[in-house]
Design a protein that fits this description.
With about 350 residues, the chain is an alpha/beta fold. It has an eight-stranded mixed β-sheet, sandwiched between helices. The two termini are about 35 Å apart. About 50% of the residues are buried.
Length: about 350
């Protein structure tokens, strides 16, 4: 499937402009985030990846029927979710009587089942001298780390293992859940909802890349994954093969419509908000220089997806395009605030 005319040209130009390592998620200083001792670790095993940690916050009223899975971005850490580090969204959801599930890890994974462990030039993963967590994809590309000594199998873990462990041990409802995420996590949320409609009745994408088969997008994602931990996109899925197309929301859009999945789709304009500027000058400049083109690319992808859904007659979507917003936590936190009431009405 192809993007034609103006949309295709816009996407091609935007993607080509971002073939440098600009797609790294900008993690802004938290404005309202604070440690919540009620959030606890929940461990479940993946047959492929081993023990995986998830952070869980119970709904304030104690119900087990209303559950939302919250996905991280490209630079997902191994200790806490970016949502917990940078926002208070989990607490807001719990106050709305939603159980919050935040899987930990999956840097650069797109929460997908990869074709192979990430490696370059046929070298055995993890044999390099680099140390994981240096923050430099260049130095980490030949080193060890998550998804390198083993194959990422995130979709399998979330849908076939974590889902049922949460039911067995906490009593969480395994059906009609919500799932949402930012950037990489936004794209993944739509993929999970498309192929597991009994699991997810609601999906939200903030600044997601929703047309990954558009001209230049694979190379833009390649650059992003190199920068975020030194991962190889070719290990995730072969170029434009069935596995790659399966991950493209533009391609599987008819499935989301057929499933009648409730969607919340958002992207900022690429213009800064006041809280992106009322911070130290160096931090503001870095956020603006990197976050503006990233969000512009996400917006172009999201608008192309919107045209695609309109052409198919979709009626199951809330579109949210704020006048300002960078590829930054300031934007995504407010995206979540706006979405939560709608999600609350469509899960459980």
């Amino acid at each position: 499937m192809r993007v034609r005319g103006f949309t295709r040209k816009v996407l091609g130009v935007a993607a080509a402009a971002l073939l440098v390592p600009l797609m790294a998620v900008i993690e802004s200083p938290p404005a309202t985030a604070a440690f919540d001792p009620a959030i606890f670790d929940f461990w479940a095993d993946s047959p492929v990846m081993g023990p995986i940690k998830t952070r869980v916050l119970r709904a304030r009223d104690g119900n087990t029927q209303r559950v939302a899975y919250v996905l991280d971005g490209m630079r997902a850490q191994q200790d806490l979710s970016g949502w917990e580090i940078n926002t208070n969204v989990a607490e807001v959801m719990a106050d709305q009587n939603i159980n919050v599930v935040m899987p930990i890890g999956g840097e650069s994974s797109f929460y997908a089942d990869w074709d192979a462990p990430s490696s370059f030039f046929g070298a055995t993963p993890g044999t390099g001298s680099a140390t994981y967590g240096t923050g430099s994809g260049v130095t980490e590309s030949m080193g060890g780390g998550p998804g390198k000594s083993y194959r990422y199998a995130w979709e399998d873990f979330l849908t076939n293992h974590l889902r049922w462990e949460l039911q067995n041990r906490l009593g969480f409802n395994p059906y009609r859940n919500g799932v949402f995420g930012l950037s990489m996590g936004g794209s993944a949320a739509l993929t999970l909802a498309a192929y597991h409609p009994d699991f997810f009745s609601y999906a939200g994408s903030y600044s997601g890349y929703l047309n990954i088969s558009a001209p230049g997008m694979r190379e833009a994602i390649r650059s992003a994954m190199l920068d975020a931990g030194g991962y190889n996109v070719d290990s995730m899925a072969p170029p434009w093969g069935p596995q790659w197309l399966r991950m493209d929301p533009f391609v599987f859009a008819p499935t989301l419509i057929a499933n009648n999945t409730r969607l919340w789709i958002s992207a900022g304009s690429g213009a800064p908000r006041p809280d992106d500027l009322n911070i130290p000058l160096g931090v503001a400049a870095d956020r603006l220089i990197r976050g503006a083109p990233l969000e512009t690319l996400a917006l172009a992808n999201t608008r192309a997806f919107q045209v695609r859904m309109f052409s198919l007659g979709a009626q199951n979507i809330v579109w949210d395009f704020p006048a300002a917003g960078l590829h930054a936590w300031t934007n995504w936190q407010d995206d979540a605030y706006r979405m939560i009431p709608d999600m609350s009405a469509h899960i459980g």
